[in-house]
Write a structure and sequence with these properties.
The chain has ten helices and eleven strands. A six-stranded mixed β-sheet has the order 2-1-3-7-8-10, sandwiched between helices. A three-stranded antiparallel β-sheet has the order 4-5-6. It has a two-stranded antiparallel ribbon with strand order 9-11. The longest helix has 18 residues. It is elongated, with a radius of gyration of 23 Å. The two termini are 26 Å apart.
Length: 347
């Protein structure tokens, strides 16, 4: 219920731009794929298209890396696991900071790991047993490098069996994972039917019609609205740290004020909950559980009041719906149900 009402609230407040600033000071994107000689799926066209959306539309900082394949005859190359660990460690060191978001995207082959919850990634299959061994990596081993980060983390994997990645346990913060498919399913190759094509379409469409939008909005938009997405394929959005936090990660373009904050050193950045100003916390005590109509009316009233007052208010944020006790919760739901029963039917 809380998520639905928060979506209604954001839509109302965004109409008059009272929420027109990103939740994050900085968003950094790491796009991972395999070098051309190891990429038998031809993912690079889609990776480049996704990079353009994140960089040009969302104004995020984007870095792309291609993992090199081991070769018996070519110049010696480190095994894929070591390459990836080095890339991610350096990226986290450069980009991690409080009030930031780290997005990791992978396109390529995927498979079920040796133990439950493991996800293996690899380039094209070779006749060389040694090459296959060196070119296979376990994402869970690299993911450990993201666990100490102070930023929120959003992983997006477009590979077969992506949903097989098991949960980890850690401190409470947003660490989410969007799998192209369930744990026992494969995904279409790059092209109009691919998950990444649907992801690109959904990002472009949501940024026009819903700002900001959550990762839950994103996956629902892919499933129900993407024009060429296969209805039998079911992307999975989950938390990597067990119980999902109170809020989903939000995405929207960064504006100039966010970019100025991003250029500060991490220790100079202010906490994302307060920005550079002050916060007044208010609570609205409803007699019954509020409906979407109630939230829309409240949002419109506050929005008009802010516009007419000329106050320098940057945002009016939704901080959640709470009930004082289980007894109050049950009584409120019963009253709301009875109230709905006595409403006249819609024409």
């Amino acid at each position: 219920m809380d998520k639905e009402l928060e979506t209604v609230w954001n839509q109302v407040m965004n109409q008059d731009r009272h929420n027109n600033h990103s939740r994050y000071d900085n968003v950094s994107v790491l796009l991972l794929s395999w070098a051309q000689e190891s990429d038998d799926l031809d993912v690079q066209v889609e990776v480049d298209a996704l990079a353009a959306v994140f960089q040009d539309t969302f104004k995020y900082q984007v870095q792309s890396y291609q993992l090199k394949s081991f070769s018996e005859s070519a110049e010696p190359v480190k095994k894929a696991q070591i390459q990836l660990n080095s890339i991610v460690a350096q990226w986290v060191m450069e980009c991690d900071a409080p009030g930031s978001l780290l997005i990791v995207y992978y396109a390529g082959h995927g498979n079920i790991g040796a133990v439950p919850g493991q996800l293996e990634l690899f380039g094209k299959i070779s006749s060389s047993t040694r090459q296959n061994r060196l070119d296979h990596l376990v994402w869970n081993h690299t993911e450990d490098l993201l666990r100490p980060a102070e930023s929120d983390v959003f992983e997006i994997f477009d590979c077969c069996f992506a949903g097989n990645l098991g949960r980890i346990r850690g401190r409470t913060r947003n660490f989410e994972y969007l799998a192209a498919t369930a744990s026992n399913s494969t995904t279409p190759c790059p092209g109009p039917l691919s998950f990444t094509s649907a992801l690109i379409w959904a990002l472009k469409d949501l940024v026009i019609h819903v700002r900001p939008f959550t990762t839950l909005d994103l996956v629902n938009h892919i499933i129900h609205r993407a024009p060429d997405f296969q209805r039998g394929q079911l992307p999975v959005l989950s938390s990597r740290e067990g119980i999902h936090p109170a809020r989903f990660i939000t995405l929207e373009p960064l504006n100039s004020s966010n970019n100025q904050k991003a250029r500060r050193s991490p220790c100079e950045r202010v906490d994302q909950s307060t920005g550079d100003g002050a916060v007044i916390s208010l609570g609205f005590l409803f007699e019954d559980l509020p409906t979407e109509t109630d939230i829309t009316a409240l949002g419109n009233t506050l929005s008009r009041a802010i516009s007419e007052s000329k106050l320098a208010i940057k945002a009016v944020k939704w901080n959640g719906l709470s009930l004082s006790s289980e007894k109050d919760k049950i009584a409120s739901i019963i009253r709301s149900y009875r109230r709905l029963q006595h409403r006249p039917p819609l024409r």
